[in-house]
Design a protein that fits this description.
Number of helices: 1
Structural class: mainly beta
Radius of gyration: 15 Å
Shape: globular
Distance between the termini: 7 Å
Largest sheet: 5 strands, antiparallel
Number of domains: 1
Length: 128
Amino acid sequence: MAYRLAYKHDDEGNAVEGSLKALVEAVLNGKSVRVLVEDNKRGHSYVFDAQLLFAKEDFVCAQNTSLVSVDQNEDLTLKFKEKCYYWMVIACTKGYLEIIRYNIGENTRVQDKERTRESQAMKWFVDE
């Protein structure tokens, strides 16, 4: 698969590059989408595949429910947290990212990080 940048927005959802209309059309035509979250608050970026896409004329939302928490090793590589949890995201071209977290093996939310909603700059890539 080869992905190309279709749309980029800042953390307030303002267009920076590409075309929201083209992204909406790609979603409505069944194209696969990847989302890059530019998490400047934490000093890193990450990419996830959209498992579910929702599109309207003026926005797209992407959902992924298969993420597992990680920490950084001393050499800045990644490792699983000692007490891992699943985290699920909904990203939207309006500039927000909602995250909910559940303990692995339990049907309970992570107490100190139950649900967050934050503004994030994102890039949206479409499979050609």
